[in-house]
């Protein structure tokens, strides 16, 4: 595999709330983080954003040296991945190069969920994009705050991760899941796997935490689990023709 264009991962790991189901390599967040996100914020400077946890492959579109490139989560070029879903992602990004060139500045990367291949949740993507954005990193490796993230894409057709709450109050796990609903807001056919909390303070993203339901199994539909063929939420060839 080739080197990483940015020299690091495209996206790091989000720590889990104390009662969240852990996967291999996952870890829980600090108790203080869980308290701020789900029980009580520190003061009026805290802003809480709760979003639906989508179940796909974490990928990114970046502008580097004037070129639009597709990356997998580890930070490698998607076209060099061992997984065919990332090759399709690279082709899709190439097809939409002009769009991404118009919205990304030099050194930025837009991270999102690539839902083309079914992992543990099936989606009806009829009329929906297989790429759903949730974070934009500046050349200084800082996340845009939620308000600036929305503003960047308000005049575009970019699909953004469903958001169910924005405000000054902490949101319990129960309330977050109730607001998202059993099947969420992005065409899930199977029950959604959980939620993500973004905690901002002033004009900075302070931290993120997430919760995964205990009964949700990772990669239920993946060939490495089933021993069968890939299951697609959308016919892959329809993306690049």
Question: What is the assembly state of the chains in this entry?
Answer: single chain
Say what the CATH topology is: D-amino Acid Aminotransferase, Chain A, domain 1
Helix content: 10-25%
| Overall mean pLDDT | 96
Number of helices: 6
The total domain count is 1
Number of DSSP strand runs: 8
Structural class by secondary-structure content: alpha+beta
Strand order, sheet with most strands: 6-1-7-8
Distance between the ends: 27 Å
The geometry reads as globular
Strand content bin:
15-25%
The CATH superfamily is known as DNA ligase/mRNA capping enzyme
Tell me the radius of gyration: 17 Å
What key phrases describe this protein's structure?
241 residues, alpha+beta, D-amino Acid Aminotransferase, Chain A, domain 1, four-stranded antiparallel sheet, 6 helices, 23% strand
